[in-house]
Amino acid sequence: MSDSASVLVVDDERAQRYVLGQYLAKEGFTVLEAEDGASALQILRQQPVDLAVVDIMMPGIDGVDLVRLLRNDSSAPVIMLTARAEEATRVAGLEAGADDYVVKPFSMPELVARVRAQLRRANDFGRTATDTSVLRAADLEIDLQARTCRVGGQAVELSRREFDLLAVLLRQKGRALTREQLLEAAWGTTHVTEKTVDVHMARLRQKLGSRVQIRSLRGVGYRLEQ
């Protein structure tokens, strides 16, 4: 992962955008700025970015809706900024497709560390190449290089994070994995709350259906049955 990666900062507060942009640029990132969700979508239509930092509370298209729209055609990691620490707010962002969140006030070094962790994770999965690029378990098949998923021969559309979680489970099929292990493997960090795993896992299980058995282990984590 190169520090020349492009980062889109979306925040309706000009001062906040300036501070974030200046600090990220100082750290070597290419920074783009948008004052609202509509402007962000316009930028994204013109050029792809490697990561987006999105404020959750904005007029018009708020951060949650923006991430939902962005996920229609982009798998770029998204870190959400929120002044609210309530679990419901965090869960809404994660369910929309965000990868991480930072609660205001936060330190710039922490934000940069999370940006780098997300970019590193995305880069690692993007160039996955193993002796076994196709993983299978019963009716389930995923191609690590093409990043496709099939259940019973039928294609299943997964978000980037859902695919990453499933890949981890398939590599370790039959083994119990803790939420902390899944966070480290699929997110590249354990700084995110373990509730993040549960939110993404619920969506993954719903998409895969009953033909794929991902068992929830109370007080532990999850296991993909062989």
Number of domains: 2
- In percent, how much strand structure appears in the residues? 15-25%
Q: Shape, please?
A: globular
At CATH's second level, what is the architecture of the largest domain?
3-Layer(aba) Sandwich
> The CATH topology of the largest domain is what?
Rossmann fold
- Within CATH, the superfamily of the largest domain carries the name Response regulator
| Physical arrangement of strands within the biggest beta sheet | 2-1-3-4-5
By CATH reckoning, the class of the largest domain would read Alpha Beta
Radius of gyration: 18 Å
Number of helices: 8
Question: Largest sheet, described in full?
Answer: 5 strands, parallel
Helix content: 40-55%
* Low-confidence runs: none
Give the averaged pLDDT, no decimals. 85
Oligomer state of the chains in this structure: single chain
The counted number of beta strands is 12
Element string (H = helix, E = strand): EHEHEHEHEHEEEEHEHHEE
**Would you tell me the structural class of the helices and strands?**
alpha/beta
The rounded distance between the terminal residues' Cα atoms is 34 Å
